[in-house]
Amino acid sequence: MPSVALVRHMLREVLVGREDPEGFFAMCLSILGHQETLSQFPSIIKPLSSANIHLHSVLTSIYQEYSSKTEDDGMELALALSLLEMKDQQMSTSNNDDGPSCFDQLDVVSKPQGKNYSQVTPGGGTNTYLGQTGTEEGPPHINQKTGQHKNTHLNSDAKKTPETSQNPQTPGSSASLSQPGIPHKEDQIMEDVNQSDKPKRSRNRRQRRKGTSQQLVGLPCSPSAPPPVVLWFRRDLRLCDNPALIRSLERGAPIIPVFIWSPQEEEGPGVTVAMGGASKYWLHQALSCLCASLEKIGSHLIFLRASGVGNEGGSSLHALKQLVKTSGAQTVMANALYEPWLKERDDVVVAALQKGGVECRMLHSYCLRDPYSVSTEGVGLRGIGSVSHFMNCCRQNPGSPMGVPLDPPVSLPAPTHWPQGVHLNVLGLARMPRRKDGTTIDWAANIRKSWDFSESGAHTCLDAFLNDGVYRYEKESGRADASNTSCLSPYLHFGQLSPRWLLWDAKGAGCRSVKFQRKLAWRDLAYWELTLFPDLPWESLRPPYKALRWSTDHSHLEAWQQGKTGYPLVDAAMRQLWQTGWMNNYMRHVVASFLIAFLHQPWQKGYRWFQDTLVDADVAIDAMMWQNGGMCGLDHWNFVMHPVDAAMTCDPYGSYVRKWCPELSDLPDELIHKPWKCPASMLRRAGIVFGQTFPERIITDLEEQRTRSLQDVALVRREFGQYVDKRSGCDLLPLPARLVSEALGWSHSDEAVVRDGKQLLLPLITRMEFKYQHEEPDTDVASNPYNAVLKGYVSRRRDEMVAFLNERDFTTSVMYESAQRQERLERDHRKIERLPPSPSPCGRAKRTPTAKDRFSIVPGEAVTLLK
Questions:
Q1: What is the pLDDT of residue 259?
Q2: Of 298, 426, 559, 707, which residue is the least packed, with the fewest Cβ within 10 Å?
C-alpha cells in the first residue's frame, strides 16, 4: 500500500543518518495509525536485522516499549484525541472568538508538508521531537518524508496571557528528561499551519533552512503545572538558535528568564578589564532589546544585581539561590562561558545548586567548538598559535556535530507569579559621568547613532553583508574607506547572533570566502589560547619579552588614545574608535603597530584601552591579538604596519581620513596621509596650522624608533638565553600542563605530576628580523634584511595582471602563467642545490632575500628540557 511504501522510503533516511529512530517511529504512527503500526512495524524493519543490527535493536526496543502500554493508557489516549476533535470543531464553526482557548497555545509545532508527526502517548501527553540543536544535550530532529524541510509559523494574532490560556496538566505527564536526547511526556499537540501564514524570509535564510526546521511555541501553564525553569541569560542575548531556551521549552514548565549582573565576576581578575565602558553600554542596550523581544512573546526578563557574598561561588550563586527559593524552580538552564574565571564560577554554581537538589545545566553554543574539548593529539605542537594548526587539531579530534540552527519561539510559558527584580538602570551599565555643574556627559551619543543593538539588527547586518560585502571581503577586507567587512563582531560577542547561525547563513548564501569563514576559527582559537594560558590578558607568554624596557612617555600614550599623533591614518582610526566603538581589523593592526613598534609603549596599555572603548571588546580575542602584535604571543606575526605607507592598502584616496579628520579634507590624495610634506602655500589654502588645527607629529624619525625597538628585543633575548633555542634561534615557551600531558599521551589526571616536574620548553615561530638582530645586535633597521615593516600596496598586481590578460587573450594568459611557473621552479632548484639566487629582473624590487639560510629554519616539534 502507498503508506507502507512511504514508511519504507523514510526508513532509508534513517539508514543514511538524516532521521533518528524515535522520529521515524513517530512518523510511522502518524502515517499508519496505531493498529497498523502494531501489526506491520516488525516486518518493515526486518531487513535491518542483517543490514544494521544496532539500528534494528534500537527500533525494536522502541516498538516493544510502545506496544507494552496498558489499556488504561489507551483510554487516556482516546480522551486526548476526543478533546482535539472538539477543539477542531470549535475552530471551524467560530472564526471570531473573544480569546484563544487552551489549545491555541502550543509547545512545539512542526509542519512537514501536511503530516502530523507528534506521537500521542498513553497518559494524555505527546512525545514531540525537536530539531537537533548541535549540543551534547540536544534532542534529535525530525525530517520530512522528502528530506526537504520548511519553516512553520503560527498565526499568533490573538493576545496570549496566562489568565486566558492556562492548560491543566494531565496526570502522568512528565516534566523532565530521563537522559539527553530522549523525548519527554508533556501536554503537546501538533497543528498544521497554512503555507501562506509564514512570514517572508530572505533568500539566504531559506537556503539555510534546507535542513531541519521547527517552530517552538510555549504554553503558559496552570497553577498545577510543574516547577518553573530558570533561564539564565548571560552572553546569549537572543531568541534564535538558543540551546538553553530550547531545552527550557522541552520541560513543558513555566520559564523565568533572568539576567544577573555581578561586576566583580564579569570584569575578571586583576587588570583584565573584561567589561569596559563601551561594552557595558552595548550590553545595556542589548538587554533592553531582549526584554522587548520577550514581552512580544508573552514573557519578561527579570534583572537582578548580585549583592550576596560567600565562599561558594560568589554573588551570582547567592542571587540564583534566592531566585530558586522564591520561585520554587527546580531547574536552571544557561549557555556556557569559557573565560577561565567564569567557568570556575559556573562549576561552583552547578555543584552548589545540584547539592541543593536543583538541576543546573550549561549548554555549548558560544563558540563553534568547545575550547576545553580541543586536543593536539595526532597533530603535535608544531605551529601552535596559528589558525592552521588549530583547525588541524579540530579536524583530527572532532567534537559533537554542529547541528542545524532553529528558529525562535513565538511564545513562552509564563509563571503564575513573577519574581521581583530591579529596573535595568539599577544595574548601572549605561551610567554617564556628570560635570561639576550637574550636566551629563553623553559620550555614547555617536555610538547610539552608529548601531542597531537588537537581535533583528544583527540579522539585518548579516543579510546586508551576505548580499554585498562578502564578494569583496577576500581581497578588500582591509579597506577602511569602504564597507567590505561584516561589522558582526559585537553581535557575536554578546550572543545576539550565534556563530552556528552565521556559518549556516554564509554557506546558504553561497559564501565562498575562505578568509571570512576562517575568522570564526580565529575566534575559537583565541578562546582555546585563553583556556591554556589564563593570564593571557596581562602577562607576556614568551618569558624574555616580560623584561622589555618600554617607554615611560605618558604623553605619547595620551596622544595615541585621543587621535592626536600627527599621523592622519592613525588619528582617523583612533577617532573612529572613540566615536563609534569600532574599527575594522586592518586598522586595529595599524594603530597597534604604531603604539608598540614606533612609540614603544607596552602592549598591555593598548589592550586595556581597546577593552574600554570597543563595543565588541572580547578578552580572549583582544589579548591574543595584542600579544601577537606585541611580539610575545604564541604566533609572531612577521609584519609591522607603517603608519603612512599602510594607507596605500586601506585608504588609497584619502576618503577615510577626510571623514574622521575633516580638517585635512582639502589636501590632495597624494599628500593627505603626510601633510608635513605639503608646501606652505597649500597648507595655508587648506587652513592647516600644525599644533593648532592639526597636531604636530609626536615622533618624526620612524626608522630610529624601529631600530631602538629591535635593539631592545635583541638585548632581552641575550639576557634570557635559556629561552632561546641555540640551533634555530627560535623563542622557547614553557608549556602548560595540559599541553604536556597531551604531547606525552598522558591523561588529564596526570597534570599534577607534570606541574610538579621540570618545565618543558617548546620552540615557537619567531620573526626572522629578531633572529638576525640577535646575531647582529648593533645593526639598524635599514640594514636588517628581514625588516618586517610593510610598505602597503594599492592592489595585488599579479591578480590584476592575470585578470587583464585573461580578458584580452587566452593564449597570452597561458604564456604568462607558464612563465611564472618556470620562475618558481628555477628558484626552488637553486634553493635545493644551494646556489645563489638568480639576479632580480630589472624593475622588480624585492623586499627581503629569498635564499635558504639559517634564519628561515622552521622550529621543530621537539621540546627542550630546562635544566
A1: 97
A2: 426
